[in-house]
Amino acid sequence: MTFFFVAVFVFMNLLVIASARIIAERILRVARGVDLFIAVLLLFFAQIAATEMFLGLSGRLSLAWLIGVNAGIYVFLRYSVRRIVLGRLGVANAARDFLNLLLSDWLLRFVFVFLLVFASVKLLINLVNPPFGWDSLNYHFTFPVEWIKSKTLDIPITVFDDPSPSYYPINGSLFFLWFMLPFGNVFIADCAQLPFFILASACVHGIARNMGIREKDAIFASALFALIPNFFKQLQIAYVDVMLAALLLACVYYLFLLEKEYSPKNLLGFALAAGLALGVKTLAIVYVAILFIPFLWLTMKARVEKRFVFFLLSCLLVMLLGGFTYAKNFIETGNPFYPLKVVIAGLKIFPGVINPAVYRAHFKPEDYRLAKLLFHEGLGVQSTLFVLPGALLALPFVFLKRKKMPGLFFGYMLLTPLLFYLAYRYLIPLPNVRYLYACLGLGLSCGFYLYREAGVPERFTRLAIFLCAAASVTELAKKGELAASAVIAILAFSLSIPLLQYINRQKFNPLSRPALVCVFLLIVFFGGLLNLQYVRSEYAGYVAMRKYSGFWEDAAVAWKWLNDNTSGDNIAYAGRPVPFPLYGSGFKNNVYYVSVNGTDPAKLHYFGKGSYSWGYDFESVHESFQKPGNYRGNPQYALWHANLLRRKTDYLFVYSLHQTKEALFPLEDAWAQEHPEDFAQVFEYGNIRIYKVLG
């Protein structure tokens, strides 16, 4: 069956890609290779999110319904829209031009080969091993499993840590769901950021070209962006920050196209990217607001009939794709940004239970130091040689050189990397470097633009590119993975010329039917083998991956024991909130938090008078949850035990609390030990205890 699952996965993706391509080619008439590639990817992501939201709202969110709806969309488009072939020629020509560039430039070949090999090795490791990222195990994968079980988009509470994820935008988890449904595991979902990684790089290339940078340097800009170590390593974890960066960069890309041609197809591209971005992460609001200013300016100055109608329709599409969670939050809580309190000039706009300033409590001013950012966060030499000069100097240099501003739109876009950084520094209350990826991508394009305007000799630019690439390669992996990737990359580089020459002589068309059939069969065969390996070693893989990931020393052993000893059981958990592995192989178990008071199931907004605040010490976080009126307040053993029995709970999984100086266990552990007549401890390892609920 494993090969069948891969075939289904490929088929459902081909359906959506084919639909997206018909829209891009036949309706929007997008012809150029890179333009078509970006448009198809955005339409692909938008159709996935839209169909899943529609089916989730109707209570029919299942694999069969998704395939049926998307097949219907394809059939409708296939037989109702006139056929043209502009896009195929555009893609084929772009591929041929890129191949010729690789053959003619050793440095481009070096950068491309090393990027491709290191990415392939990292993805292969991901494909045969289970996930280990905190956000993945906490909610990115947990929410989709609940949706698979309920066929709706209902979201459980996130406990014992920041309670906000239950109210986060869900587009990222919708994409993970798409990759999970055919397999009943996260074999492919753990690599779901890959298409966004490719989209982000393509957008950097497109932005650079629209800045007037020559083709080869635009490719270098996109490759150096992909090689930023902190960004590149996101391939090994299923977070949503690459998704957000790609969509923001797509917004910038379409702004440049709108400046050249204010047309429905470019408006659609911007609206799709902005809407999807707003639906991925709440902080996207800040970045999209920065980009909305030039969007409004371009609308005001466009000499197009009904431009304001187009503008309003674009805003409507943005809200439809990005506003689902905000609307849901408003309906349930009266606050689209719940659980945050929204207060402006002392006036309460929306009620909430957490002051945004609380999130700064875990960080210090030195966490934002520029030296720390540039030299201790894996941003690569390119951030010093290209991003920083581009963000700070491109606009003033062009002004001084030309003795005038380069135009309001272009000047604003040169300023945007700095605006993104200032928003990160002063408006976003978390100093996570991954929130700067879009800034880095746009900054790289500005850096190459500055080098061109300053007349930097090509040999110095190429030296800077080589230094950036060579330095980045040493940070992309560790120990065995680094050595293996380097050896394969060196071998591939040495063989690249004859291989590329052979491909060039064959006049190979990657979009021909025989080529597509061969690719399909190869993906099904090798994908099936990898999926089979993943299924067989999934929970043993958690144990084996401890050294590689550096996480879950105790938990991996407990997860394996639980998987080996359960089959469709009901499991309550308490303590460190990483519930995803508790579902077991094929998501066979039911996993949930059981309330310690009379409100069960618990959700944050069910406790309307709650208020949460904490300081630098994480113990204050757990104390805040237990205050009267909050979701763990007023605990009573009798109520908790009754809740367990009502849900027919089989096991209680207890993990020590998150980020405390000493190993502290939640209240549920003490209760279980105090009542041996109701609980039997069946497992203990490190900071984890598992109890059998006796009834």
What does this protein structure show overall?
The protein is mainly alpha-helical and 695 residues long. The protein has a domain at 553-693. Helices cover 62% and strands 5% of the residues. It has 28 helices and seven strands. A five-stranded mixed beta sheet has the order 4-3-5-7-6, sandwiched between helices. Strands 1-2 form a two-stranded antiparallel sheet. Helix 5 crosses helix 22 (479-505). The longest helix is centred in the C-terminal third of the chain and has 32 residues, at 513-544. It is globular, with a radius of gyration of 26 Å. The protein starts with a helix and ends with a strand. The model has no long low-confidence stretch (mean pLDDT 92).
Features:
695 residues; mainly alpha; five-stranded mixed β-sheet; 5% strand; globular
